[in-house]
Design brief:
Elements lengths: L5 H11 L1 H31 L5 H8 L3 H12 L3 H39 L10 H31 L7 H35 L4 H14 L1 H31 L6 H35 L16 H9 L18
Length: 335
């Protein structure tokens, strides 16, 4: 029996069932578009609350950088409290919306993948509440990562104070700390994403899904590492290719109009995000395949020892140890 690779099964799903990737794009991009519009609308509303005096208008019309900067500082003075309040409220409602929408989207994707690999038409059972809990922990992890990034700059300020500046050391501290924070957040986010599979695969609750994910990491660490590595390399390859392609419209900035350059950059960016979403679905399919495939699909067969012809003839010539039923044994002799 041929051994099946979960990683290969994940890549097959990307091409055989493109509807899975399109569904992932649909819910992700819908939320992204709504969040972007909400942010732009909030920013415009914030600008409408800023008082602009006649003197500020006069300074803005002078086209002098120094006078314009003074006008801008005067316009935005005293509005930092409103910015913080608006940002906190916006982030709170966006987090709540993402928890709900991501739970619905992940439920649809995981259910479809389980039906695909189990080759059954019966609907998969499972509740949405565990996904709400997992997504809540993902939001908390993202918030902790933001705090960690701020802590990196505070740590850099401690090692490079104004009295004794050391920009080189500060840069290394910020870069190293930010890298560690990003790696920690990526690991936690990946683990919670893996745990979402068990909500419908084994009908677990939030903490039960996390426990099952830990058990899977312990039992199938090699398969999980292989799937994550191959899809990660594919992601890096797509990023490098997109970076090279986006340089083409940027190189035509002085030749064509700016709006055409921006349209080209936007098109390449959207195409990159679409491929990334397909790769995410493929990696999720590989994890579902790991659950359905055993550690090894190769069943060892019992083989008979092979002897050369001469040895076989000599073995055949030797008297057999079997008992002839016609021969008399001691128990058959009459005394």
């Amino acid at each position: 029996m041929t051994q099946r690779s979960p990683t290969l099964e994940g890549f097959k799903v990307m091409f055989r069932r493109p509807s899975f990737g399109l569904a992932e794009i649909a819910w992700r991009w819908s939320f992204g578009a709504a969040a972007s519009l909400l942010i732009v609308f909030s920013f415009l509303e914030y600008l409408d609350t800023l008082p602009v005096t006649a003197g500020d208008r006069l300074l803005l019309k002078t086209r002098q950088p120094v006078l314009i900067s003074r006008a801008i500082v005067h316009i935005f003075r005293g509005s930092s409290v409103r910015v913080v309040e608006a940002a906190l409220i916006l982030a709170l409602f966006l987090a709540i919306g993402w928890i709900a929408i991501a739970a619905l989207g992940r439920a649809a994707t995981v259910k479809a993948l389980l039906v695909y690999f189990r080759e059954t038409t019966q609907p998969t059972r499972g509740r949405l509440s565990p996904l709400f809990g997992l997504n809540f922990f993902r939001v908390v992890a993202a918030l902790a990562a933001c705090v960690g990034f701020l802590g990196a700059f505070l740590l850099a300020y401690l090692v490079s104070p104004d009295s004794d500046p050391a920009p080189g050391i500060a840069f290394v501290v910020v870069l190293g700390t930010a890298l560690l924070v990003w790696l920690a957040w990526s690991l936690v986010n990946w683990f919670l994403s893996l745990a979402s599979v068990f909500v419908f695969a084994e009908e677990e609750d939030t903490f039960g899904a996390m426990s099952s994910a830990i058990d899977l990491c312990r039992r199938r660490a090699g398969s999980l590492f292989a799937a994550g590595t191959w899809f990660g390399l594919a992601h890096i390859g797509v990023f490098v290719l997109a970076t090279m392609v986006v340089a083409l419209p940027l190189g035509l900035t002085g030749v064509v109009r700016v709006r055409f350059v921006l349209s080209g950059v936007l098109l390449v960016t959207l195409f990159y995000f679409a491929i990334v979403d397909f790769l995410y679905v493929g990696r999720l399919a590989a994890y579902v395949a790991i659950l359905g495939l055993p550690d090894t699909s190769v069943v060892p067969e019992t083989t008979r020892p092979v002897f050369p012809p001469s040895t076989q003839q000599s073995l055949a010539a030797q008297p057999s140890g079997a008992v002839d039923p016609d021969d008399l044994i001691l128990s058959d002799l009459s005394v």
